[in-house]
Amino acid sequence: MSITIGAAIYIALKPILKIYAIIFVGFLLAKYDIVNMETAKGISNMVVNAILPCLTFNKIVTNISWHDIKEIGVIILSAVLLFSVGMACSVVTKLTTPVPKNWFWGLIFSGIFPNISDLPIAYLQSMGNGAIFSQEEADKGVAYTCIFLFTQSFFMMNFGMWRIVGLDFKDVAPPKEKDSEQHSDLEMGDTKSSDGTDAQDNTRTVKPNLEAMNKKYRHSVDSGNEVSSIDSEVMSYNSIGNVSAFPVQYSDSIAGNRGQALRSRTTDSTSEAGPALFMVNSSPGVLQTESGGDSAPVDKPFSVPRSRGGLRHRHAPSVNDMIGAYSVAHKIRTGELDLSRPLTLTEDIGASNTAIGEVSISETSSDSDTGDQYRHNITRTSTAVTTTASHGRFQRFIRRYKLEWLVYFIINFIRPASLGALLGIICALIPWVKACFVSTYVHVHKAPDGQPVLNFLIDFTGYIGNACVPLGLLLLGGTLARLQVSSLPPGFIRSALLMTVFRLMVIPIVGVAWADKLYNINWLDSRISKFVMILTWAMPSATAQIYFTAFYTPMNGKHTQMDCLSVLFIIQYSVLFITLSFVVTYDFKEVLKCMSQT
């Protein structure tokens, strides 16, 4: 097969344009607050825990067999080499440019791990139109990419290498004692205002006014009168020192055209205990809700009030949104979160610890329990105590023989993303098991429709897995929209530029030479495996680093690490479409031998 150089450039550029278009849509969705940080985090959890495992299982079982064991071994070896070369480039960048001391490990992480997920999969899925690769070859390429992704996840999560990002934060001082006291007092309601009065008294002073305003609002809704006059009253109670207060009913209910409300009136809890207040502390993106009763304040994502015109005030996305959603710096500092133990498995980045056989006793009997409920609580408590005792013996055994590392390693295999790929590899490499899912040369009894008995699982995982790449690229666009640079260390722009040159220019050249060598010695047997090898080496840094950095970033103070990371990603994705086009076009011309001499 031969194509002209112009056709090769177009074929190489077309998937990139599609990828950038989807990323741009995600950028706009976040920029205009259509998808806020809370929603984006939920979608991310859904992708990591459900959609991505389905995609990896489906592609591996369908396209990999025991004949591909050699390719799997070569891919794992190539991934280790890729990580090593990237780390070496990071060290060179550190030695030759002024990298901030408190972002050295972040630079190392950005060099080690590339984006081996949405980008290469999206690119490969766009190549199965027959111009270069068939659809079968493209699907097999996606399966090879899933092996790369599994290897990266193995190093990042099972070996705990994601924690090297936190080494940049070990010297970060906790908030000043004065600020901490003010924050604590604000939550307890006993801080003093600047004139010496009690802040709690100020809150009590405002609360009757808010009650009166709520009564006025309810009367307006009942009578169908306009509610626009309430706006000025809300703004007049906008601040009490560092505290902003406005009624939940107003922020959540007033919307629509003049004289109309989109939501129902106040709930029973607020009508009985008085209006609830949103107490805004100095932490970005976090609100504390204080009710009129005795309930303790709880952290909630910021809810933007609706304007009288029926449109929600647009909340400008910022990096503080990600920090507010992911940061657990306070838990780490107080010891509430132990990073030497595995984190929860049902989140992309867990906010609490988990362990094998761990059981928490959340319900105990109380004076108000009577009859069957009391006996039910007693039974649950007894069972939980027995289970906890067994768990305690297991933990003592682990500590006695210093097997914590093994527990960490094993538990992270249970993560859905890792489990999907692991089960896929096991099923694909055992011919008789694979034959239960897809038709192979192994004879097994078929279902009445002539398909393997478990073929419905392939249909199920394929149907769900198709949503992985679009959602991933939309989330990537939203992440880029929230990146901000508040301050830049002197000379860091040179570090970011050099790291970009290494990541998107030097490393791809090494990848081309490596893939060519593997192909010549028959370690890679197919064109698609060679193409996937080169494509993977041409990817930018992993965007997961943004969430890992936000995980460690304190809510207050300077965010130097996030600023440096923002600059690096902005530069990399600004030139990616150019560098990737060059790499793929060269791949077509020199490596795949698809072009005629012109």
Keyword list:
single chain, 598 residues, mainly alpha, Na+/H+ antiporter like fold, 3-stranded antiparallel beta sheet, 23 helices, 3 strands, globular
Name the shape in a single word. globular
The largest sheet is: 3 strands, antiparallel
pLDDT averaged residue by residue? 76
Question: What's the β-strand tally?
Answer: 3
Helical content class:
55-70%
Beta-strand level of the residues, as a percent range?
under 5%
Structural class: mainly alpha
- What's the total helix number? 23
**What fold name goes in the CATH topology slot of the domain at 5-171 and 395-596?**
Na+/H+ antiporter like fold
Task: Tell me the Rg in angstroms.
Answer: 28 Å
- The poorly predicted ranges are 177-208, 224-312, 358-370, 374-387
End-to-end Cα distance: 14 Å
> Helix-strand pattern, N to C?
HHHHHHHHHHHEEEHHHHHHHHHHHH
By CATH, the architecture of the domain at 5-171 and 395-596 is named Up-down Bundle
Record the strand order, biggest sheet. Answer: 1-2-3
Could you give the topology of this structure?
Layout: H1 5-31, H2 37-63, H3 69-96, H4 104-112, H5 118-125, H6 135-158, H7 177-188, H8 199-223, H9 230-236, H10 248-253, H11 268-273, E1 277-280, E2 286-290, E3 298-301, H12 319-326, H13 329-334, H14 371-400, H15 404-411, H16 416-429, H17 431-434, H18 455-465, H19 468-482, H20 492-520, H21 527-537, H22 544-552, H23 560-591
Antiparallel strand pairs: 1-2, 2-3
Helix pairs in contact: 1-19, 1-23, 2-6, 2-16, 2-18, 2-19, 3-4, 3-6, 3-20, 5-6, 5-19, 6-16, 6-21, 12-22, 20-21, 20-23, 21-23, 22-23
